[in-house]
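Module 6 notes. Inverse folding takes a fixed backbone as the condition and produces residue identities as the prediction. Think of it as a translation problem where the source language is geometry and the target language is the twenty amino acids. Below is one complete input and output pair. Work through it position by position during the lab.
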């Protein structure tokens, strides 16, 4: 998803310098149509690139690295690259153990992106290992800035905080769908209902970010005495939405699954 936006934003990185690898060439054709280079050989990507994004399932990490070894061009010498891992739950130490068979002195950054990055409105957390230079971080930040906002965190927070940006969009899509259903029930066309519901979430988020006010205070500012909003809020309270355990448990379930994936 990030590669798509980097290709679209020519000022960030030229598509001609981007390589995309996958096991099935026909599924990579859309990358080629956007100007990127495609291959089924991970070793070719390793040989051609100085920054490599790892976007495989956690359990396939070793397979991806072994494919690098097996598909390196003849007489290719070892090189150090910056590996940027999107693998949920896989620690920097685990990444180094896997990568060491390919390159012993390469640096590693863990990131947790989300799907809205593909439209330039995402959130991405990142945590570098001790060997990553400030210059390398700045290169990564430049790439991420074209996809939304980013924030550096300690690795101890990556598994705890990562599921919020990573899984949160799915939770919000449920909210958007439910809000749209509410006005569809009142006779509003579905397409209009979805546009309005999506923009309400966008605007509400921007209010929190730009005003720096607590969400509870912003909610109070919308609720006039005896007005329609407070009646709607009461219905939400009665329906259990304010039972924060529901959303808290959703994040906790995602965190626990993330950690489980890292152990496989």
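Target side of the pair, the amino acids:
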């Amino acid at each position: 998803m990030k590669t798509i936006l980097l290709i679209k934003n020519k000022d960030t990185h030229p598509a001609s310098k981007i390589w995309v690898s996958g096991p099935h060439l026909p599924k990579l054709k859309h990358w080629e149509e956007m100007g990127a280079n495609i291959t089924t050989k991970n070793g070719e990507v390793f040989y051609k690139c100085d920054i490599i994004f790892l976007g495989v399932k956690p359990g396939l990490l070793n397979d991806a690295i072994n494919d690098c070894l097996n598909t390196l061009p003849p007489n290719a010498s070892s090189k150090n690259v910056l590996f940027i891992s999107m693998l949920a739950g896989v620690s920097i130490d685990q990444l180094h153990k896997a990568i060491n068979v390919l390159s012993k002195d390469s640096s590693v950054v863990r990131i947790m992106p989300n799907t809205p990055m593909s439209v330039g409105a995402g959130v991405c957390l990142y945590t570098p290992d001790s060997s990553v230079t400030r210059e390398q971080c700045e290169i990564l930040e430049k790439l991420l800035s074209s996809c939304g906002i980013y924030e550096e965190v300690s690795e101890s927070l990556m598994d705890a905080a990562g599921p919020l940006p990573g899984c949160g969009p799915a939770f919000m899509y449920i909210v958007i769908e439910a809000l749209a259903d509410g006005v569809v029930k009142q006779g509003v066309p579905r397409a209009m209902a979805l546009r309005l519901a999506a923009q309400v979430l966008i605007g509400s988020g921007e209010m929190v970010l730009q005003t720096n006010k607590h969400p509870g205070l912003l909610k109070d500012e919308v609720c006039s005495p005896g007005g329609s909003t407070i009646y709607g809020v009461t219905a939400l309270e009665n329906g259990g939405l304010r039972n924060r355990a529901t959303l808290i448990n959703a994040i906790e379930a995602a965190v626990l699954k993330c950690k489980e994936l890292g152990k496989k």
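Reference fact for the lab report: The chain has twelve helices and seven strands.
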